[in-house]
Structure formats: structure tokens, C-alpha cells
Write a structure and sequence with these properties.
The complex is a heterodimer of chains A (about 475) and B (about 425).
Chain A: H1 8-16, H2 22-40, E1 43-46, H3 48-63, E2 74-78, H4 105-112, E3 116-121, H5 155-162, E4 168-173, H6 179-184, E5 188-191, E6 211-216, H7 219-229, E7 259-263, H8 264-267, H9 274-289, E8 293-297, H10 305-320, H11 338-351, H12 357-380, E9 383-387, H13 403-408, H14 414-419, E10 423-431, E11 434-441, H15 447-461
Chain B: E1 3-14, H1 54-66, E2 74-75, E3 78-81, E4 91-94, E5 101-106, E6 109-118, E7 122-128, E8 131-137, E9 144-150, H2 157-174, E10 186-196, E11 207-210, H3 215-234, E12 242-247, E13 252-258, E14 268-269, E15 276-277, H4 280-288, H5 294-305, H6 309-315, H7 319-331, H8 336-345, H9 355-366, H10 373-386, H11 388-395, H12 399-413, H13 419-431
Parallel strand pairs in B: 11-12
Antiparallel strand pairs in B: 1-9, 1-10, 2-15, 3-4, 3-14, 5-6, 6-9, 7-8, 10-11, 12-13
Helix pairs in contact in B: 2-3, 5-6, 7-9, 10-12, 10-13, 11-12, 12-13
The chains are: A alpha/beta (about 475), B alpha+beta (about 425).
Chain lengths: ~475, ~425
């Protein structure tokens, strides 16, 4: 088995046909992690014994002829996901030794579908960051070039998939945190509709923005995992009762007659890198050749998106992080990292009496306008196409001392979280040796169409077949 | 100069729902082993989320409607951010600018709002292994708590007490809380200031007395505060805006916390809970669940059963007693007035004696078994003839002798016969 190119689809077939066992698969991944992860820093905790015992159970089930969507499939969980009795740090040293007494709903869904939890992946602490460098432990490195960042905040999970340490990497996306690392690591990342996948048990960053998604090598794999994770949860009041379609069934359908919008505000932006622009335009051309009708659209409030985001998100963060007071568990508050402290300060200020109207309240109004921008645009077109990042993966240390420059790497992805709609990042080429992703944005609960478009594109281009070489 | 008190009330009431406000843990927490009724949600563990208890929202609205409030068709929860060791999330889920109920009134006092929030854990200050420590019990964390806020319309300590008693009665009628003040499920906080009689403006200060657990203590605390404020004002000072506590042992209030600046709780809409949007049929549905309330019931009892104010007040004190009375009435054998006398004077245990049983025993105890007049007369004659000594004694003025003779007649008749007639006959026969 070649773990660098293996997909869930292939692994399932091989497990069914007893080409290899789940135990063999897990051992191979553990060996690979032990050999290579010291260079990359993808994992904070590897649960070797837990993974092996789950693999044994999976093999016993396979032997009995039991079939489940993810039976025997390794998954690496971002460390924001609560995992029962397995250390869960959120990438933050303040809860360095915390072991949750319960599983996140989505972790239970993976386990019920037969998946094997390999361990917990590194991330920007609490999800605060776009590069992976804000981990309180160590930065994660891009497997395509280890002097470059893998994108964040779900940095470890993206690298785990790209480097062949796991078949699924789970993530959270509050502003960019799945799409950015997916695009920087040449894999497929789904940022779901807000409320489509339950947040229960996933440590909150900004509750009204957080979405719970995942990264895989291919579009098919991604759609298959989504069939497992999506759906309402009685423990999360923000998950509506919307039926979950079989996402894999939309794959392979023709794109003829579908309309795609290109936001003029994004492409006229000066900050967009030449290489990224070229690769993205080529990808859009490819989709046109597959029958999509492409037209320019407008998202008129785009220029206010980052300001809106950096008022509302820190406000919720300042409240969500106040439980880490060291009274019941964890270290004291001076243990918070610099970025967490920065956001606590920003949010506390924005919510303060006398400032609330000028900041929080105003930003909430802008949020409505941005939401309407997307609603209006998506009445005219079926999907919106855009780059994920204005630049290819940047160098470690390049932006770490310039928080504003770091924030601006999310300029094409943050507005999607403000609007609450779904978006997918799919590999669409390279700038030199560095991967670039295409963002496909859709209507609320319209993920099926995103998969349809992405899979048609992937079938033509197969960028995922160009793995990182370690 | 004369002064008049200006008093507003804040009342917290724990609802007696089966489960807590945002999780499935039992809400009944009194005298339970500490930290045995907790889960990730009410412990505020990382990642846990609140899901609101529908019943607690319905009950809040029920109370609001019973207090004549308007129910806005849009409402939401907000986060009240502050640090305290008994507050595991670092914020309390409460309601800020759009509570479930607004603009009601009770006994002439305007109700500003009725909103729903979660209770906190409880701190226990104790000594453990020789060290003074503070322990936290989270059994109470997340229990639904309703807050009722009045306008500053109360003008005397007595009025405050009467208002609270009426509120208590309504809460008990609605059966939404034990409202047991000793167990802390009803907590009372008067806001007190005074102003020169005749002025209309609100005073430029107020003093809040926190967490009082009896109506009488509220009255006493207000009396104490009003005296204190008047003395200060007379000497040219303005009382300090502050929070005080009631010390029952000494009969005084004591300063707890100065409030020079308003607290900044950094309220913002609770993002984990979607806002509530009602349609008016839902509100009507809740309204239909409200039973007849004490004042309406009292008016009806007076009219329907021809009862006086005193009896009516006693009977309608609790819904249980009023219902019991009406069930007895329905059996339709005993006049209402007679029932009231039995139920109230004989202190009938309404939890123990079924209405039908009570009616039966009243009938048995007061029944008159008819005896033909000739038989009655004959028996009286016989008793007089058989007890010449007693007859003589009575004639000499010994009242006990009559009692003896009366008893003897009853004995022979085995308790039957009209008692008044027997007494009359005895007197007539002896005298003749």
C-alpha cells in the first residue's frame, strides 16, 4: 500500500477484499508518523494503543461481513474535538493535561461509522490563526516544502492527510481554518453550512461562526465522510432538521447549464498573487469547458468583511475563553498565548459598555448586509468561484509578527463564514512546488452541488495525484 | 419634612422543572450529595452546548401572562459575562434587552419584566485538613431561574410584603415553583430609596438589599433602610448607592458592596441558542393552561357560595385548598358555610382525607336521627323518675345535674334525637 496516495475508496475496497487488515493499515500509518512527523509536527497526541485496539475490532467486524461507511478507516482529529479519555488541548497549553469525560457528537459519529481514531492533531491554539504557527506547542510545516506553512488553523489535520498519516483529517472552520490548510496542502476541504454538522463537544472558538468539517485526498472521500458527520443533533440547538442527502450520489453528474459567479471585488483586489490569479483563471476556464456558464457577480460589502469578522469573532472568543480560569481544571490565565490574549482584549473591548454600539452592534448589522450579498448573488448563480488564499503558502515566520497581514490571508474565505454558507476547497494547481486551491461557494445546505462541481473538475485535472514527497 | 419610600423589587424564583435549564440533569438540588447532578453542560466543560428546556420557557411565559405582561413575539437569550467561581462558563445565560415578558402589573405595582436565566453553583466555605477552603457544588448550576423585576411603585414596607405574598400565591397557583424561601428557591431583593413627600422624581440613589429569605425580613429591612435614609437626608447627606445584606440576628442591614459605577457585564446575544419566535396561537395556548388565579377565585367564591371575606381568603390561600373545598361542594350534601367551618376550624388534612370521606364524616357527626315525640317524652319521664336526687339538685340550681340527666337520656336513646328538644323537654318536665 502506498499511504501517500491511498484514498478512502481504495482502502475500503482493500479492507473488504482482505488485501490488508485494519491492523496492518493502522500499523503502517503509525510507522509513517514515527518516521516523518518529527519534521512536520502534525500530531500533538498519537493514540497508538487505542488505534490498534479499534483496528482489531474493525477487523473482527469485517470478518463477520459487517459493512459500515468508514469501517477500518483512520481519522486524525483536530485537537479542538473532545475525545473521551484522550488528551484534548485545543493546541493551547492552558489545558495541556485535559482529558474530556465525553466525546464530541461528531467523534461519536466517526466511531459509530467504524472509523479509527489515530490521535489528535496540532493547530493554531483555539483555532486562532491561518498558518499553524500559533500552536502553543510547535508549528506544523508544509509537506510540499517544510520551510512554508501548511495553513491554519487546522494545520495538523491537513498535513496528516497530505503526508499520508491518515485518510481523514477533521477540522473546524470559523474563518478559513479548513479551506486554507486544504488549499495549501493539495487536499479537499469542506467548510459546511453553519449548523449542518453538530458542534457539541468541539471546543468553541466563535460559536455563531464555527463549522465542523473535514479534509480528505479526494472529493469522493470527502462526500462519503460528510454522509457520516452531517445531520441534526439534539445536543446542539443550532442544527436544524434538514435531511442529509447521499452526497456521493451527486458525483459524476454533468455541469452543463450550471451557472458560476466570479465576484469582481475578489479579482480586482490588488493583494491577489499573480500565480494564484493565473491558476484560478485556468481552473475557471476548465469548468467553463465542462459546460458551466461563468459570469461576473458582485459582493458589494466585501471590503467591510474583515473588519466585521474581527469585531464579532473576538467578541464571542472573549466570552468563550472565560471558562479557562484555572479554577476547576487547567493552568491559570497567564498561560494563554499571545494571539488568544490579543483576541480576548479585542473582544472584551468591543463588548464593553459605551463601545458596544460602535463595534459589536455595528458589525452585527454589517454581517446582515454581507449575508444578503451572498443570498442575492446565489439567486443568480448556482455557485461562486474564488481563490481560497490570495497567495500561495507563505514562509514560516513571514507573517507571524504582523497580525494584520496574517488576518488578510483570509480575505476570500472569511466572508463565507459571515454568511454561513458552505464552501469547498479543491486542489487546482501549483505555484512552483506549492499547492493552490479553488474555492467553490454554494447556497445554504447546498453542499451536494459543491461536490458535483468539484468532482467534475477533479476528474479532469487529478491534481491530488501529485503527492508531497517526504 | 416628611418622606415617602420609593421601593422596587427583584425576585428570583427557581422553577421546579424535572431537568435543568440547558441539560438533562435533575433540577431538584436541595440537600443532594454535592456534584452528583452534573454533566459537561452544567459544568461548562470545553465544547459542551446549552439546549433550552422548553417547559421552563413555557412556564416563564405562563407567569408573565398571570402578571398581565405582554409577550413579545421575538425574544432571545443573552450572555452576561462576569467572573465568579460558582459560574463555570464565565458567563450566565440570561436575557438582556428582549425578555420573554414585559409591562405587566400586580396589585397596583407595575411589572417591568419577567425573564429566564440559569442559576449558578453554590460555594461552601469550610475547613479541610486544617486548611480554610472554598468548595464548589455544581448541582444547582443551570437550574432554571425566573427573575421578576417591578417598577419602583411600592410606597411602604407593608405594601412590599403584601405584594410579595400575592406574587408567592400566584406562583404556587401556577405550580411552577416550590417558592420555598428557606431552601432558596425564592429570593427577594428590594431596591430602596426615599424622597420628600409630594415630589415625583426618582431619588438620585438607591440601595439594594440582597437575597432576603422571608417576607417579614423584607418588611423589616425596608423599615430599617427607610429610617436610615431619612436620618441621613435630614442631616444633609445622600445615602450611598450600594448593595447591603440583612442581618436578622441584629435586625440591621450591613454594607456589602459599593456601586460607584455600573457593572459592565458585556451582554451580547447568546450565539449557541437560536432566538425564540412565537406566533400568537402559541401564546394563546399557554394562556389556556393558566388556572383561575387567587383574586378571581376569591371573587367567585364570595358570590357563588355567599362567603365572607375572611372565609374566602382562607379558602383561596392555596389552589389545593380551594379545589378541595369545591370538590366537597360538588358532592352537594352540605351547605358551603358549614363545609368552610369544618375545613378551616377542624384543620382538615386535605392531603389525607378524601373530599367524599370528609363529607360523610360531617354528615355522620351532625346527623339528627328522628325519634317519635312520644318516645322522646317517655324516655325523659323515665329518666326523671329514676333520678330523683339529680332532679332535686337541679332544682337547687346545680347546673351539672342537668348535664347528668341530659346524658342519661342520650344514653337511653343511643345518641338519637334532637338535642335541643331533649334539653327543652327536661326543663319543662322538671319545672312542672
Amino acid at each position: 500500500m502506498n499511504l501517500l496516495t491511498l484514498t478512502i475508496k481504495e482502502a475500503r475496497r482493500a479492507l473488504q477484499s482482505k488485501e490488508f487488515s485494519a491492523v496492518e493499515l493502522v500499523r503502517a500509518y503509525i510507522d509513517r508518523i514515527q518516521t516523518h512527523d518529527s519534521k512536520l509536527g502534525a500530531f500533538l497526541t498519537v493514540d497508538e494503543s487505542g488505534a490498534l485496539s479499534q483496528a482489531k475490532r474493525a477487523d473482527a467486524q469485517i470478518a463477520k461481513g459487517i459493512t459500515k461507511k468508514l469501517l477500518g478507516i483512520p481519522v486524525a482529529c483536530k485537537d479542538l474535538y473532545s475525545t473521551r479519555a484522550v488528551r484534548t488541548t485545543a493546541g493551547a497549553k492552558i489545558i495541556d493535561t485535559y482529558k474530556p469525560p465525553y466525546n464530541a457528537t461528531v467523534v461519536d459519529r466517526y466511531l459509530e461509522a467504524g472509523a479509527i481514531l489515530m490521535g489528535k492533531t496540532n493547530e493554531d491554539a483555539w483555532g486562532h490563526g491561518s498558518s499553524g504557527e500559533n500552536s502553543d506547542y510547535f508549528p506544523t510545516r508544509n509537506p510540499y516544502d517544510t520551510t512554508h506553512v501548511p495553513g491554519g488553523s487546522s494545520s495538523g489535520s491537513a498535513v496528516a492527510v497530505a503526508a499520508g498519516f491518515s485518510l481523514v483529517g477533521t477540522g473546524t472552520d470559523t474563518g478559513s481554518s479548513i479551506r486554507l490548510p486544504a488549499s495549501f496542502c493539495n487536499i479537499v476541504g469542506m467548510k459546511p453550512t453553519y449548523g449542518r454538522v453538530p458542534r457539541y463537544g468541539v471546543i468553541s472558538m466563535a460559536s455563531s461562526f464555527d463549522t465542523i468539517g473535514h479534509m480528505t485526498r479526494t472529493v469522493y472521500d470527502n462526500a462519503l465522510v460528510y454522509e457520516v458527520t452531517a445531520g441534526a443533533d439534539p445536543r446542539d440547538a443550532t442544527t436544524p432538521q434538514v435531511p442529509v442527502p447521499m452526497y456521493t450520489e451527486s458525483l459524476g453528474k454533468s455541469l452543463k447549464g450550471l451557472r458560476a459567479g466570479i465576484p469582481k471585488e475578489y479579482f480586482r483586489s490588488n493583494g491577489i498573487d499573480k500565480g494564484v490569479r493565473e491558476v484560478t483563471m485556468t481552473a475557471i476556464g476548465k469548468l467553463e469547458s465542462l459546460g458551466m456558464r461563468v459570469e461576473e457577480i458582485s459582493l458589494p460589502h466585501t471590503e467591510y468583511a474583515m473588519a466585521c469578522y474581527y469585531v464579532l469573532v473576538p467578541s464571542e472568543i472573549s466570552s468563550n475563553l472565560s471558562r479557562y480560569d484555572g479554577v476547576r481544571f487547567g493552568a491559570t490565565r497567564d498561560t494563554f498565548g499571545a494571539e488568544a490574549k490579543r483576541r480576548i482584549m479585542l473582544g472584551t473591548h468591543a463588548l464593553s459598555a459605551g463601545y458596544y454600539d460602535a463595534f459589536y452592534h455595528k458589525a452585527a448589522k454589517v454581517r446582515t448586509l454581507i449575508k444578503q450579498d451572498f443570498e442575492k448573488a446565489l439567486e443568480k448563480v448556482d455557485v461562486i468561484l474564488a481563490p481560497v488564499s490570495p497567495t500561495p503558502p507563505f514562509k514560516l515566520g513571514e507573517k507571524v509578527n504582523d497580525p494584520l497581514a496574517m488576518y488578510l490571508s483570509d480575505i476570500f474565505v472569511c466572508p463565507v463564514n459571515i454568511a454561513g454558507v458552505p464552501a469547498l476547497s479543491v486542489p487546482c494547481g501549483f505555484a512552483g512546488i506549492l499547492p493552490i486551491g479553488l474555492q467553490i461557494i454554494g447556497k445554504q445546505f447546498g453542499e451536494q452541488l459543491l461536490y458535483q462541481v468539484a468532482s467534475a473538475y477533479e476528474n479532469e485535472t487529478e491534481w491530488y495525484k501529485k503527492p508531497a514527497i517526504l | 419634612m416628611t418622606y415617602e419610600p420609593v421601593i422596587g423589587m427583584e425576585i428570583h424564583v427557581e422553577l421546579k422543572t424535572k431537568s435543568k435549564m440547558f441539560c438533562g440533569c435533575p433540577a431538584k438540588h436541595f440537600a443532594k450529595e454535592p456534584n452528583t447532578q452534573t454533566c459537561p453542560v452544567c459544568l461548562g466543560l470545553p465544547g459542551a452546548l446549552p439546549v433550552p428546556n422548553k417547559k421552563s420557557i413555557e412556564w416563564t411565559i405562563k407567569l408573565g401572562l398571570a402578571l398581565g405582561c405582554e409577550i413579545p413575539l421575538f425574544s432571545k437569550f443573552d450572555r452576561k459575562n462576569y467572573f465568579y467561581p460558582d459560574l463555570p462558563k464565565g458567563y450566565q445565560i440570561s436575557q438582556y434587552d428582549q425578555p420573554f415578558c414585559v409591562n405587566g402589573s400586580l396589585s397596583g405595582v407595575r411589572i417591568r419584566r419577567v425573564h429566564l436565566e440559569e442559576d449558578t453553583g453554590k460555594l461552601q466555605h469550610t475547613t479541610l485538613d486544617g486548611k480554610r477552603v472554598t468548595l464548589v457544588d455544581f448541582n444547582r448550576s443551570g437550574v432554571p431561574l425566573v427573575e421578576i423585576v417591578t417598577e419602583p411603585d411600592i410606597r411602604s414596607p407593608e405594601q412590599a410584603k403584601e405584594f410579595l405574598k400575592k406574587l408567592y400565591q400566584i406562583i404556587r397557583y401556577l405550580d411552577i415553583s416550590d417558592a420555598d424561601m428557606e431552601k432558596g428557591s425564592m429570593r427577594l431583593e428590594p431596591n430602596i430609596s426615599v424622597r420628600p413627600t409630594g415630589t415625583k422624581a426618582l431619588p438620585n440613589y438607591k440601595v439594594e438589599v440582597k437575597n432576603i429569605n422571608s417576607f417579614n425580613f423584607v418588611k423589616k429591612a425596608i423599615e430599617f433602610e427607610v429610617d436610615r435614609h431619612i436620618k441621613l437626608l435630614e442631616s444633609g447627606e445622600t445615602p450611598v448607592q450600594e448593595t447591603r445584606g440583612w442581618n436578622e440576628g441584629k435586625g440591621v442591614t450591613v454594607s456589602q458592596r459599593r456601586k460607584e459605577e455600573a457593572d459592565d457585564y458585556r451582554y451580547f446575544p447568546e450565539p449557541d441558542i437560536p432566538p425564540a419566535r412565537w406566533d400568537s396561537s402559541q401564546i394563546i395556548g399557554i394562556k389556556l393552561q393558566i388556572p383561575e388565579l387567587p383574586d378571581q377565585k376569591a371573587a367567585r367564591f364570595k358570590k357563588e357560595y355567599q362567603l365572607n371575606d375572611y372565609d374566602t381568603a382562607l379558602l383561596t390561600d392555596t389552589k389545593q385548598l380551594a379545589d378541595y373545598f369545591e370538590e366537597c361542594v360538588k358532592i352537594n350534601k352540605i351547605p358551603a358555610k358549614k363545609l368552610v367551618n369544618w375545613i378551616i376550624n377542624k384543620k382538615v388534612d386535605i392531603d389525607d382525607v378524601l373530599p367524599a370521606t370528609l363529607v360523610k364524616s360531617i354528615i355522620a357527626a351532625t346527623a339528627v336521627v328522628a325519634i317519635p315525640d312520644e318516645d322522646l317524652e317517655k324516655t325523659v319521664q323515665t329518666v326523671i323518675a329514676e333520678n330523683p336526687k339529680a332532679v332535686e339538685d337541679y332544682k337547687k340550681g346545680k347546673q351539672q345535674a342537668m348535664m347528668f340527666l341530659f346524658g342519661a337520656v342520650l344514653k337511653q336513646l343511643k345518641g338519637a334525637g334532637d338535642k335541643n328538644l331533649i334539653r327543652e323537654l327536661l326543663e319543662v318536665k322538671i319545672k312542672s
